[in-house]
Design a protein that fits this description.
This protein is an alpha+beta fold. It has one domain: Fe-S cluster assembly (FSCA) (GMP Synthetase, Chain A, domain 3, 2-Layer Sandwich), CATH 3.30.300. It is built from 2 helices and 3 strands. The protein has a 3-stranded mixed β-sheet with strand order 1-2-3, covered by helices on one side. A hairpin with a 2-residue loop joins strand 1 and strand 2. It starts with a helix and ends with a strand.
């Protein structure tokens, strides 16, 4: 695990999740490479395909505030 992956995990758990009302257990960091954070979303997050793009956009904006190296957030299966 890289320092950047750990920083993303901590930001999701301590800042992004609480700000957005999401449980950190619902967001699993799969990888962070070349400015792209790949997240696996679970629970209610994953079960609403219509709202997924908006949710990812909000996650991206919040995550960028705490980990500026992240340029893009993608959802993965």
């Amino acid at each position: 695990m890289t320092d950047l992956v750990e920083r993303v995990r901590v930001a999701l758990r301590d800042h992004v999740g609480p700000t957005m009302g999401l449980d950190a257990d619902e967001m699993v960091v799969v990888a962070v490479e070349d400015g792209i954070a790949s997240l696996r979303l679970a629970g209610a997050c994953a079960s609403c395909p219509a709202g997924l793009p908006a949710l990812l956009a909000e996650l991206e904006a919040e995550l960028k505030r705490h980990v500026p190296e992240v340029e893009f957030v993608e959802g993965v299966l």
